């Protein structure tokens, strides 16, 4: 097989190690477009021989490039330049309801997708994850291939417990934690714990998928308006709801952080009746750019009223199908007596890999890296949006991975989104986060157009170019 | 570290390869008790040097011993004799309702556990599974870490489709298949597809976990008696059931195989009303010892009335949290319009590993191996049970991993199980497979005691000793 010649000039007297020099050379060649997608690189052995360096040096450089997504390692074939286009918009863009193929086409056709769900997988430590998996499989005995505890392995539950206490102030014991294959599954299980005929209150707008799940559970749903402090407890009191589903730390998609006063009101509401509970979806508590990170609502709950739900899909990777739910003791009792026969949905191998990833400090390191990455994009987007300030109020930028643009000129969401689309830019409409049949009654005549711009999966260049196109689309120049 | 000396005499002129000789020597030493649990073996390098063979030869022998469960490889530590006691009773024994620890104690205390759910993991090709996983992780790019299709990856669905057609006569397209993290999850999803207020009919006795799941869905449940051909359709007709949950190929736990006539009756019942469906749980269709394996009920269904559910937990390993459900088109439509937003509960990496395991022929090879293993145990148990024939009718031995002993002498199940327990033998009572509050009305005065003896996880020696103890316990000598 013909191998791509690479002419690297190494500088032994440089401050940089040989491995760094090789890594940077190849990375820059790819960035500059001198190495093209799917091109095969020289084998590590060949490159080591021709550069007169050790095989380990080349392996390290290649490993780093793979872990950063520049190269792809194909078993028994070698290293190839990775398909860069495939690295963005990992999550959230696909709407399964519309069927796979048709939709994937649409996905490709929109060049600058400001999806608020998409995350950046370019920095995911693939190599580390693979290494841990490999080590665990070497260690693996039949126990790891057996069915684990229904609530999840105690080791992982203990680790999650410690992590949640340290980072989110969550007070719980490992026995209160249930590990499941994704939030959707945990909400299904929670339905079995709560029982039927449970009336749920949701913020408006909200996370539409949770709304769909509650609806598919045939729960009556009350849509409760918000003010600048979050869900209005006075309005909540006028409903028959037993359960309120809230996102107090960073409401999705408004970005509102609920202050302590409102939290206390909400906890008071829940404490007034035995069967009232709050579901706290702390979906992306990890990323906050301004102000002190708020502890969880669960941290202020002394009455055992909060079901705390979180996931590793956002902070690690969508493919890590591991979420967790912390049950207050009254619900834990119900789970134990009525639902503990449901087998775990997460394999023990996956649980063990995740546990080591957290325990060995990789998770924290990755979060720190991503916080920095996202903050840079956040600052860039805020800066690029300066010329938009005359026409839009810009908000929601304290945390999370998106911002809100509220129109001041009386234009419609549909009109603005359509104009963007014509410039190959996808922005998201607040309308899509309001709940189905209930929209009409809550929408007033003076509701302004609000557009949602997510930046998680875009590169700085894409953010710049996307915003430049939006400027043109919306005639801001 | 002191390493165990092993004095292997190799015979270069033997028919057996050097690798086989090493493998057999160590295996026999372990079997004979000369190498004890947790003892460390010489490193592969050391053994290769001292035997004057290649490192690869030793690696192969060790690999084989690990894959058969004789040795355990611990990362960076070496090879150890595996804890044999841990290899049985992988599944089914644990009752999560009773809490982990207390129960695990009880598990250890019963020496000969004839669990009908337990499977034999001693022959699982751990090494192959690990190798595939490793290769896939080398190949893995960001796509594998992204969220897959809600129904599961098309590649795996296509493979399952082909497998089900070939082995079970199931007629379906990949688009009808939904992959999920275990049967329990798929039944929860099916509840969302079927909707609330669905009246379910179940065979009596039945798979109690499915009963519990339907009950936790608050479905009204009708318990329908069986005759020697399975569920009585005349009795089914007297219920208001829309859904019948059946196990036509090998009813659990009775072992009844439903003949074609009864199948046709059942399909006719389902076809009479638009909203009637049959759930076919084909939980362990892989193991049949007598007679031709029956095709699935789904294979005879021309009206789109059968939901076919199967799992890899039984045929591969309980930890493989991958099950599948084949939806008839009317239900597929409902899934698509109302439930397709539920994210997949199985990671793409796990789906890819399983897909290769099947496609590369390992699954078939493993099934063949296990069929042989289980048949040998089946024949042994049947033979050992000869002295029981005066006191018991022995049945259910055509398929699956257990047999039924029906008492002829008017003794009670509780009495017999208790006597067994005193000899450190656990047998299972038919009583436990009858459904909760409905038991009384269906139990007649002349119901005989039926005991269930599973043999999946026991070694031949354990079967012999367990039966010898039962003979003593039940005074059959």
Features:
homodimer, 477 residues, alpha/beta, Arc Repressor Mutant, subunit A, Aspartate Aminotransferase, domain 2, Aspartate Aminotransferase, domain 1, 3 domains, eight-stranded mixed beta sheet, 16 helices, 16 strands, 39% helix, 14% strand, globular
How does this model look, in words?
The structure is a homodimer of 477-residue chains. Chain A is of the alpha/beta class. The first copy, chain A, has three domains: 18-109, Arc Repressor Mutant, subunit A, CATH 1.10.10.10; 130-361, Type I PLP-dependent aspartate aminotransferase-like (Major domain) (Aspartate Aminotransferase, domain 2), CATH 3.40.640.10; 364-473, Aspartate Aminotransferase, domain 1, CATH 3.90.1150.10. In chain A, 39% of the residues lie in helices and 14% in strands. The first copy, chain A, is built from 16 helices and 16 strands. The first copy, chain A, has helices spanning 18-31, 44-51, 55-67, 100-109, 126-139, 154-168, 183-194, 208-216, 233-237, 260-271, 329-338, 348-359, 362-384, 413-422, 439-442, 460-473; strands at residues 71-74, 78-81, 112-113, 177-180, 200-204, 221-227, 230-231, 243-246, 277-281, 306-311, 323-326, 392-395, 402-407, 425-426, 428-429, 450-454. In chain A, the strands form four sheets. Chain A has an eight-stranded mixed β-sheet with strand order 4-11-10-9-8-5-6-7. The longest helix of chain A is centred in the C-terminal third of the chain and has 23 residues, at 362-384. Chain A is globular. The N and C termini of chain A lie far apart (53 Å). Residues 84-108 and 437-445 of chain A have low confidence and may be disordered. At the A-B interface, strand 1, helix 5, helix 7, helix 8 and helix 11 of A face strand 1, helix 5, helix 7, helix 8 and helix 12 of B.
